[in-house]
Amino acid sequence: MATVVFGVNDVYDYESDLRNPRKQESMEGGVLNPAHHPFVLSAARAATLLIFLCSLLSRTSSRNNWQGPLLTALLLALSWQYSSPPLRLKERPLLDSISNGAIVWLCWARGYADSGLPLFGPDVADSAMKGWLLAFCTAGVHALGAAADVEADSAAGQRTIATVFGKRFAAAFSAIL
Questions:
Q1: DSSP code per residue over 125-143
Q2: How far apart (Å, rounded) are the C-alpha atoms in residues 127 and 134?
Q3: Are 66 and 73 spatial neighbours (Cβ–Cβ below 8 Å)?
């Protein structure tokens, strides 16, 4: 999954990453050499197919056996569309942070669905609320990261929650979430 989420992001964020001090040989990663972009995208496509096929093979015999493959398909589609065209949700203010939280929620929900417990409806367990908490926290952390990257993203011409609405709005949005 990391190849899909982070690899695709590194390809499409090349211009921004060049200007981002957090991407210069730090724990935040590095800048992906353009010579590796075709390989990374090919690996991400292969990983996407493999992950989806595995989700079809690992369906449980529970009444919710459709949830796993459906959640996996949504997770993979959102992971691609977060960074890549045509949607590139990363450059759609507010959706950039919300979609980040949704990706994490879908990862959590995919594992939770294998328990056989429903994610929605009257029989939802209290433990399902933990997934929502994780999603909101992730969206908030994303908004805070966008505030930290506002100069690099502005220089690269990217539209994020922080470049459009400002650092203070992004930080307030983060705190609310």
A1: -TTHHHHHHHHHHHHHHHH
A2: 12
A3: no
pLDDT averaged over 10-residue windows placed end to end, the chain, 177 residues:
89 86 69 95 97 81 70 96 94 94 94 78 73 94 93 88 96 95
Residue from 111, 140, 44, 34 nearest 83 by CA: 44
130: CB partners within 8 A, 6+ apart: 108
Amino acid in position 77: A
Q: Where exactly are the structural domains of the chain?
A: 2-176
CA dist 72 to 76, 164, 173, Å? 6, 31, 28
Rounded to the nearest 5 degrees, what angle is found at the Cα of 129, between the Cα atoms of 168 and 135? 35
In eight-state DSSP terms, residue 31 is: P
Global confidence as pTM: 0.86
Distances (CA, A) of 89 to 106, 122, 159, 162, 177: 16, 32, 10, 14, 19
